[in-house]
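cron nightly-structures :: item 1 of 1
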Amino acid sequence: MSIPLENLRTNTHQFNLPLKIIKLSGEDIEQYLHSQTTNNVLKLSSHSFQFNSILDLAGKIIASFVLCKESKEVFYILIAEQFTNSTIERIEKYHIAEEFELEEISEPASLIINDLTTDSGFTGTYFFENDKIVFHASKLNEEIPSELKLLTGVPELGIEVKMGDLINNTFFDELSVDYQKGCYPGQETVSKISTRRGAAYKPVLMIFESNNEIIGKIYKDKVKIGEIYSSCLIDKKRYAYTSLIRDYRIDKSNLNFEIEGGHYQADIHYYPFLKGDKSTLAIDLYDEAVRLFHQEEYEQAVLYFEKALVVKPDFEDAYESLGVLYGRLGEYQKAITLMEKLKEINPK
């Protein structure tokens, strides 16, 4: 890996986001997007983002993208460049009397993961819960590591997900479908599949031994049971983004399979393998702080304990451990202040 795994989870990084930007503006744009897409646009706050999708009537993906909201009258769609024209055509197709306009924006976008600041940008969950998207003047050199995609399950349209895929069979189902919202094109089909047997195929993470890049259809007893769309080597193990048929999608199970004449044995894990919620991040930051503490890297340990408390302000163990650390450093007033705060959170 170009960046150590623990670094991806606990440090702030800014990556180039290789997506085209479509600006949509007008007094009717919020309601129009809400009526045409799978996610609840009305719940999206200003200066935040969500994953969203546009489907055909059969529930198949026409476009899956990131939707950023600047205000009720200004939104941005971020989508892979090869799908920009078809997405604009689909939006215009049902654009009859609504007041809004579309234009392509030439500015590059970047993704900041694990950002704990309040700087400008659009906040939301991309890989992790406190990520941020910003627009700026020039393209960044650092690309998103493939490991992030593989470990979190966030797919890329055109690679792990193809245009025309049934959305129930993809991870965009979890990322971009709000089953509580009202009608949108394809909603009836999507809901029926979800409430009956569920998706026939679904993405899972497979981990197995192989030094070679592996992509393609996988078989068991000469019957196709899935397909590997992308993979990478992490700590001498092959991690593969795999669409697997229902009967073999069992979390933490072991699967024997064949691909391209080779025989393999893999562990199956549901997505997301690397979780993106704030509670998990706070624990990861705390664990990193404890590790640094034991290595007597006290200044860095303080930094990570403080990060954990920014993410989870009621994190009792972090208050106690940071208080102990300040005591060891002779900063007694800081230690007392933290213990007083801990007492407020939990008097017992």
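cron nightly-structures :: done
The first helix runs from residue 5 to 10.
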